[in-house]
Design goal:
This protein has nine helices and 15 strands. With about 350 residues, the protein is α/β, with parallel strands linked by helices. The strands form two sheets. A nine-stranded mixed beta sheet has the order 14-13-12-11-7-10-9-8-15. Strands 3-2-1-4-5-6 form a six-stranded parallel beta sheet, with helices on both faces.
Length: about 350
C-alpha cells in the first residue's frame, strides 16, 4: 500500500520530536518541511531525510498535495494554516496551545467541519504510557469509587534570573504561563481520567519576578461524577526523578479499594486499602522521543485512524472544552470564586461531544 504523505510546518525546539516520530513510521512518510527560516527548514530536511524543504506553506501544499499537515508553529499562525489545509481538503494535526484565542479555536473547528477534514490537537500527555495504564486501571472498576486525585507539578526549571532560556526562552514573556502553557495538559488528563468538569477554583501566583506570567498555583476541579481533583503546580520546585521532564511531577489517585501512585520516573504503584505495601504495576514503555514516546504514540494513533484501523481522540471540537476550562480557571483566579464551566459555553458549535476514547 502507498504510504500516507505528511507535510509539516515548523522547525522550532519541539518539532524535533515530531520529525523523529514520523521517521519511524512504515506506512507514513514526511515528504516536506516548511519554516519561515529557510536555513532551519533545510537543516531539518537534511537531518531527517525529508525530500523537500520550503519557506512558503502555500507553495508546499500546492506542490506536494499531502494527506496530512502537521502544524508545529506558534498559536497565532494556527488559524490561517488550518484554513489553508481545509481549503485543500488536507487533514491536520495542530500543536497546542491551540490557536491564539478561544474565538480563533472555535473558528478553526467550524472551518474544519465545513470542509470535512479531520482536525486533531497535538495533546500528547494522554498518550504517555502511564496515563494509558491508569485509564485501564480506572476503567476496570477494581479500584471502586474514585474519591479524589492530586497531581503535583514540579519540573524545577523556573528559578533564577534567566529561567527556561536553555530550551524555550519565550516562556519568560508569556503573560499567561503556568495554566496556558503547562496546566492545559492536566486539564486534558483530568477530563480523560476522571470525567467532565463542572466547576473550578484557582489560586494562581507569580513567584519568579523574571517572568511575565504565573508560575505557581493550585486548582480544584469538581467533576460532574463527584470526583475531586487537585492540580498543585510550581515550576520553581523539583521532584525526585532521573529526568524531571519525564512526568513533570507525581500523581496520587485515591479510590474506595485501591490507591494508585505515579512517581517521577514513570513507575506506577498500587496499594490496597488496609495494607501498607506499595506494589509495582507492570508497565512496559519505550524510553524514546518525548515522555514515554508519547509524540510517536499520538501520531501513530492519528495514522491508524486515517487508515481505518481505530477510533480517534483529541479531535479539536472536543479540545474546545479544555479551553473553556482554562478560561474559567483564569477568571476564578481573578475573582477568587468557583466558576461553572457551563457559563463559558456561549458561542460553541452545538453538541460538543465528550471524548473519553470510546469512539
Amino acid at each position: 500500500m502507498p504510504k500516507l504523505r505528511i507535510a509539516a510546518i515548523g522547525a522550532g525546539y519541539f518539532s524535533q520530536f515530531h520529525y523523529e516520530a514520523w521517521s519511524r513510521m512504515i506506512d507514513a512518510e514526511c515528504v516536506g518541511v516548511c519554516d519561515i527560516d529557510s536555513a532551519r527548514a533545510n537543516e531539518v530536511a537534511k537531518r531527517w531525510s525529508i525530500p523537500h524543504a520550503f519557506c512558503d506553506p502555500v507553495q508546499m501544499i500546492e506542490r506536494l498535495k499531502p494527506d496530512l499537515l502537521d502544524i508545529i508553529t506558534p498559536p497565532q499562525s494556527h488559524l490561517p494554516l488550518i484554513k489553508l489545509a481545509a481549503e485543500n481538503r488536507i487533514n491536520v494535526i495542530c500543536q497546542k496551545a491551540f490557536c491564539h484565542s478561544l474565538a480563533e479555536a472555535i473558528n478553526a473547528v467550524q472551518i474544519a467541519e465545513q470542509h470535512g477534514i479531520l482536525l486533531v490537537v497535538h495533546e500528547n500527555f494522554r498518550f504517555q504510557p502511564w496515563y494509558a495504564e491508569i485509564k485501564q486501571q480506572l476503567d476496570s472498576g477494581k479500584m471502586g469509587q474514585i474519591y479524589q486525585a492530586t497531581f503535583r507539578l514540579r519540573p524545577g526549571d523556573g528559578q533564577g534570573p534567566d529561567p527556561y532560556s536553555n530550551r524555550q526562552p519565550y516562556f519568560q514573556k508569556m503573560k499567561r504561563f503556568l495554566v496556558h502553557e503547562t496546566g492545559i495538559h492536566f486539564v486534558d488528563i483530568f477530563r480523560f481520567l476522571f470525567g467532565e468538569v463542572g466547576s473550578v477554583f484557582a489560586d494562581l501566583r507569580r513567584l519568579n519576578p523574571a517572568i511575565a506570567g504565573e508560575d505557581a498555583g493550585i486548582i480544584i476541579f469538581c467533576h460532574r461524577n463527584g470526583v475531586r481533583s487537585l492540580f498543585d503546580g510550581n515550576r520553581l520546585l523539583d521532584h525526585p526523578a532521573k529526568n524531571h521532564r519525564l512526568t513533570m511531577g507525581e500523581m496520587l489517585i485515591e479510590g474506595e479499594h485501591v490507591t494508585l501512585r505515579l512517581d517521577g520516573d514513570g513507575q506506577l504503584y498500587r496499594r490496597a486499602r488496609g495494607f501498607n505495601e506499595w506494589n509495582l504495576v507492570p508497565l512496559q514503555w519505550n524510553d524514546a522521543g518525548f515522555a514515554g514516546d508519547s509524540v510517536y504514540r499520538l501520531q501513530r494513533h492519528v495514522i491508524d485512524h486515517l487508515l481505518d484501523k481505530g477510533p480517534i481522540m483529541n479531535v479539536a471540537r472536543d479540545y474546545i472544552v479544555n479551553l473553556l476550562i482554562e478560561a474559567a480557571i483564569y477568571k476564578s483566579a481573578e475573582q477568587s470564586n468557583f466558576q461553572e464551566i457551563e457559563a463559558w459555553s456561549a458561542g460553541l458549535p452545538q453538541n460538543v461531544p465528550r471524548d473519553d476514547g470510546a469512539r
